[in-house]
Amino acid sequence: MFTNGSRLFLGATALTALAFTVYGITQSWGALGSVTLFFLIGVFGLLAGVAIWSRDANVAPTDEAAVRTSAAAHAPPVRSIWPLVGGIGGVLLAVGLVTDQRFFVAGVIFVVVAFVEWAVEAWAERASADAGFNADVRARTLSPLELPLAAAGGVAIVIFGFSRVMLAAEEKVGPVIFVVAAALVLVFGWLFASKPRLRRGLVITICALGGLAVLTGGIASASKGQREDLTQDYKEDPYASRDGHKNCSEDTSDVADEDSSGRVADKASVSATFTLTADGKLDLRQLGGSLPEATTLLIDKGNPVTFLFKNEMPGPERRLRIFAGKYPHVDENGSIVADTFDTVEYCTQAIAEGDTAFLGLTMNKPSAASSEPFYAEVPGVDGAKVEIVVP
User: Which of 77, 83, 286, 350 could be 257's S-S partner, Cβ–Cβ 3.0 to 4.6 Å?
Assistant: First the structure.
């Protein structure tokens, strides 16, 4: 009942199934190993079924009809790339299960395309005894669809793979990769244009290897993830000071304070104007100065606000500092670090007497959430302080 070939593949299927069971029990069904062994079971089982159905392609020499109709009596089929495409799709399916679902979708597309193309190619080969006519039948059936779809798919693969590489590459390495890739495209484009008699197979091979290299790099880069500076939870605020990145103290020797213009163009909807008077007091006028001086500034949580700071006090340059809370420090794992706090503050550039500075910010937390109250002050000037309330 079972041929020699079927026995071989059935044995391989059984051994792989045993390995799959042992691996799953001992390794807690690890994703990568389990998926790989499961696919091997399917491959060996399929080959065993083919061997049983074809009886190892053995034909008795006394069976004249079988000899005339056997595969050996017909011209060999043309070489086909679709088994390779299907194999690539199977690899993408396995990789996508453990990395990125987009690779899984790409694998499904590869497998479906390989199945349709291979099936139509096999059907066209049996259309007649003339190989040229059969090739024409296949071309008239699939070429109107496969050429534009293949071009769009190739462009999509190159764009997606190259984008993953650029997102994962370090900031200084990215431009180098971009220049090298552009140089390679230019060199091979010149080669193809200057040598029009190059064999078609060589051109297709070079293009396929280039696309495969980009796809492989994209898979590796996607599994690595984007570089750290592209995954931060916030974008750098030019007015904010976090972990000492910006100087908001009374020290005006910082490079960020050099060449400050001290001039601000007319601004619409200024939330408040702070004025450091000649006697060292910090006056507050809300709504651009249309209301009388206030002692407490009220700011809505989550709404962008804009401030003007005017320095009328003689002496060294001064800046306005907004203290926006002190909160427990949270590490990368989301755990609170004991006895460690983060301070959020905003500040203007240091300006001289008679100058004006601009400050824009958004209060994302209420003042009640901080261990210390919010306030605005001029560092180095005693008493130049205004309370801020964020409900």
Answer: 350
Tell me phi and psi for residue 169, to 5 degrees: -70, 150
Q: Within a 10 A sphere around the Cβ of 247, how many other Cβ atoms?
A: 18
> Mean pLDDT throughout 63-84?
70
Whether residue 8 contacts residue 54, with contact meaning beta carbons closer than 8 Å, is answered with no
Return phi, psi of residue 269, to 5°. 60, 45
Report the distance separating Cα 350 and Cα 209, nearest Å. 58
> Angle at Cα 330 formed by Cα 328 and Cα 333, nearest 5°?
160
In this structure, the dihedral spanned by the alpha carbons of residues 157, 163, 165 and 168, taken in order and rounded to 10 degrees, is -140
The burial class, CB within 10 Å (0-12 / 13-18 / 19+), for 199 is exposed
Query: CA-CA-CA-CA torsion for 218, 222, 225, 231, nearest 10 degrees?
Result: 90
Strands 296-298 and 385-389: parallel
- β-pairing, 304-311 vs 272-276, is parallel
143: left (phi over 0), alpha (psi -120 to 50) or beta: alpha
Q: What's the pLDDT band for 233 if we cut at 50, 70, 90? A: very low
- Length of the chain in residues, anyone? 391
Exposure of 37 in the CB half-sphere (CA atoms within 13 A)? 18
Q: Which CATH code fits 240-389?
A: 2.60.40.420
* Of 270, 297, 278, 263, residue with least CA distance to 376: 297
Residues of the chain with CATH 2.60.40.420: 240-389
Query: Whole-angstrom Cα distance, residue 307 to residue 316?
Result: 21
Tell me if 184 sits within 8 A of 162, measured CB to CB: no
What residue has token string 């006028």? Answer: 285
Q: Among candidates 384, 344, 386, 342, which has minimal Cα distance to 362?
A: 344
Helix axes of 82-98 and 101-125: crossing angle, nearest 10 degrees:
160
Q: What are the tens digits of pLDDT across the range 338-368?
A: 778 888 888 888 898 999 988 888 888 888 8
365, 305 Cβ separation under 8 angstroms: no
- Cα separation, 215 vs 210, in Å, equals 9
